[in-house]
Amino acid sequence: MCGFLGWFSPTPSPRAEAFAGRCASALDRIVHRGPDDSSDADGPGWWMGFRRLSILDLSDAGRQPMSFGDGRYSLTFNGEIYNFGELRHTALHEPSLPSSGDTAVLGSLLARDPVETILPTLRGMFAFAWWDREKREAVVARDRFGIKPLFYHHAADGALFVSSELRPLLHWLGGPLELCQEALDGFLRTGSVPAPRSLDSRIRCLQPGHLLRWCDGTLTEETWFTPTWPGPEAWITDPAAQRGAVRETILDSVRAHLVADVPVGVFLSGGLDSSLMAAAMRHLGQEHVQAFSIGFESGSGVPDESDTARDTAAHLGCDFTARKLTSDDLLGELDGYFDHLDQPTGDALNTYLASQLAAQQVKVTLSGLGADEWFAGYNYHRLAALAAASPIAKASLGRPAGHAVERVLRLLPASIGAHPTAKALLYASGGMGRTPQEWQSRARTLFDPDQIARLTDRKPIPPGISPSMETRAPGSWLHQLLLCETDTYLADTLLRDNDATSMAHSLELRIPLVDPHLFSLAGRLPPGAKLSGSVGKRILRDSFSDLLPPWIADDHRKRTFTLPLMKWMTTPRWRDRILDTLTSTACRDRGWISPQETARITETCFRSSDGTKRSWHLSQSVWVLFVLESWAQRHAG
Asked: Are 365 and 264 in contact (CB under 8 A)?
């Protein structure tokens, strides 16, 4: 692991000390105290441990856990604070500290001011644990959008165990996993486990923008940041001003994310977002930009974007490294992937492969992730515009009319039902719901409630009712939809998965487009600057057209980095591996998913010769079940 562990208890614990000893070989340093005062045998027990990926201040002075205030405070911190240099001079007025890195700045600030005052000043990705010996209080906090993960267990005796990975907590608790049915339903519904739950009911995931306070066994949770966007009165209406602000803010964010004492590379596909990152790096004066891409053998069933990425790298003057995978190559990577997977997910294998490639040459890479969520880049965003404009979809008639259209489409051949026109009709008729929350939820649904009921042999636990987004993004259905994406798909799937799979290779993945300054600006851009007709992310293309190669700037299609699972999963070796896993005695005895319904789903997928979007949905359903059981066999006990 690259990250931290922390344990805080009202009383010392031999079991906790023994666990710290077992972890010592996997951690660079453990700071262990308990009780805090040798004269107080009943004082609290605590320890912190850290495994370092050295990016800033490579010397021993940058090692964690780090002490402050003559030993009163201790800090262990995972992530990067990109404005630490500015904070060092403007907030601390300290030109020099014992360490030149960001940990020393963060700890010095926390030792001086309350945590709720410091958190809003931080620009970066972080999860940290802060211990105050005098108050006997621990504060644990996570960044605004959830770039860095944090899991915790609050025991019956009051002890708090925190970790930047789930697996150490599973080892700490021991025994078989205690399944959280609500988390399992959420995973089947969306292909990822929704915070604040984990698949183990004893372990929670701290939500983005939240903090925990622990004192003598009592734990409270607070919200320190909620994503909100202003209404039309705050929107920038002048197109030239919009373009200038976007260009300046993105370049400033990329510049901030390049701060490191080691080389920084970039993931490069054939799409806009990663090309924008590479172009910005070169524009900012990075002479040697190393770009990394994954491609596939010919005839794999999906576009091989590595050739386009190679052309883009050449156009921008970047060094380029690519790996072209075969079906057997990808199959051979699965065991390592599942071993490192912190939680089951249907969406992270591509980042795992790209990180594996990049880690051979660099310790840090930039990613273009986040543009789709804040600048309306997904294809279904354009379809949602039909629902927003349709009087039928918004009226009370919309729900029964939409259900009728949905029933008819299910009766038609798959090639017709999966056609974009049919999708458009479904949205316009109200079949995908009447609110932005419903559109987003339906678009991200993999298994519907009836399918989950058949898979689990019980009535599924419905997700909590999402509060209306109208107060958080007044005056725009699109902004409300994008904030739904920020709360769910961005936080629970993309950011969490990308961190876990990059850290598996000791690679730090930085995401300049998920930045508080850019988020604030995105909320002040009118919807039309993001989504205009059939063109998404319009403002990004307009703002950087001079830096991008024409085949990127002029291509308005949504390109996704897609693994060729739909075709490769039907080959004999893949099919045998999947069926062996899903029909195993372990899978049947575990009882998480119905053997009969699983067999029906896999048989339907493997018998299908359909090459439409419906077939992709079938293969993705099988893939998610395969990932779930493969993860469980390794991590569920």
From this structure: yes
CA-angle at 115, arms to 109 and 120, nearest 5°: 85
- Taking the C-alpha atoms of residue 548 and residue 258, their distance in angstroms, rounded to an integer, is 20
Counts for the chain of helices (H) and strands (E), in that order: 30, 17
Whole-model pTM: value is 0.93
Helix-, strand-, coil-residue percentages of the chain, each rounded to 5: 45, 15, 40
Distance CA 475, CA 528 (A): 13
Q: Which residues of 511-533 are buried (b: 16+ CB within 10 A; e: fewer)?
A: bbbbbbebbebbbebbbbbbbbe
pLDDT tens figures, 358-415:
999 999 999 999 999 999 999 999 999 988 887 776 665 556 666 666 666 665 666 6
For the segment 172-230, what is each residue's pLDDT rounded down to a tens digit? 998 899 999 999 999 999 999 999 999 999 999 999 999 999 999 999 999 999 999 99
Place of tokens 């293309």: 541
Give the whole-angstrom CA distance, residue 520 versus residue 516.
6
Contact 473, 479 (CB under 8 A): yes
Return the closest-CA partner of residue 519 out of 146, 169, 141. 146
Residue 406 pLDDT: 67
Contact 268, 354 (CB under 8 A): no
| Beta carbons of 222 and 250 less than 8 angstroms apart | no
Burial call 555-569: b when 16+ CB within 10 Å, e when fewer: beebbbbebbbbbbb
**pLDDT interval class at 38 (50, 70, 90):** very low
Q: Which two tokens stand for residue 409?
A: 């489409």
Phi, psi of 442 (to 5 degrees): -65, -40
Lowest mean pLDDT across 126-140, 237-251, 420-434, 550-564: 550-564
Distance, CA of 370 to CA of 514 (rounded, Å):
6
Could you give the CA distance from residue 597 to residue 461 in angstroms, rounded to a whole number? 18
Q: Which three-class secondary structure state does DSSP give residue 340? A: helix
φ/ψ region of 558 (left if φ > 0, alpha if ψ in -120 to 50, else beta) reads beta
Query: How many CB atoms within 10 Å of residue 149?
Result: 26
Q: What is the mean pLDDT of residues 436-449?
A: 93
Q: Do 197 and 186 contact (CB within 8 A), yes or no?
A: yes
Residue 69 φ/ψ region, left for φ over 0, alpha for ψ in the -120 to 50 degree band, beta for the rest: left
Look at residues 540, 479, 504 and name the one whose alpha carbon lies nearest to residue 231: 479
Q: What mean pLDDT, rounded, does the chain reach?
A: 89
DSSP letter at 405 equals H
- Coil vs helix vs strand at 85: helix
